[in-house]
Amino acid sequence: MNDMTERVCLLLSWYAFLHALTLIAILFVHFVLSIDMKILGEPGKLLEIYFLELLGRNTAICLSPGIWLGLRIVTGAARILPWRQ
Fold first, then answer.
1. SS3 content of the chain, % helix, strand, coil (to 5)
2. How far is the C-alpha of 33 from the C-alpha of 36, rounded, in Å?
3. Which residues have a Cβ under 8 Å from the Cβ of 10 and sit 6 or more positions away?
4. Closest CA to 61 of 26, 33, 20
5. Is 16 exposed, middle or buried (0-12, 13-18, 19+ CB in 10 A)?
6. pTM, full prediction
7. Which of 78, 15, 81, 14 is nearest to 50 (CA)?
8. In angstroms, rounded to a whole number, what is the distance separating the alpha carbons of residues 35 and 25?
9. Element (H, E) at 62
10. 57-75 vs 3-27: helix axis angle to the nearest 10?
11. Residue-wise pLDDT tens for the chain (85 aa)?
């Protein structure tokens, strides 16, 4: 693989990892701790807008696995943990 493809794959893998981590944190805060995201102020409102309105619920949940599947097909490695190659 050339250098540019490697960098794009690394960027996508980091995005998918951070997206999944943020989604898990939001779900934990909302369902386990029963805290409304609006209590968190502006950052909570921005996260809610990003996950629910920009992406939609189904897209927000399926985005990281979709990226990992695409990376697996293209490169042969899903890179779920981006720092491990």
1. 80, 0, 20
2. 9
3. 79, 82
4. 20
5. buried
6. 0.80
7. 15
8. 12
9. helix 57-75
10. 150
11. 688 989 999 999 999 999 999 888 888 877 788 777 677 777 777 777 777 777 777 788 888 999 999 999 999 989 999 988 7
- Per the CB < 8 A criterion, the answer to whether 76 and 84 are in contact is no
Tokens at residue 82, please? Answer: 């981006």
Fill in the amino acid letter for 57.
R
State the residue for tokens 């690394």.
10
Tokens 């899903």 map to which residue? 78
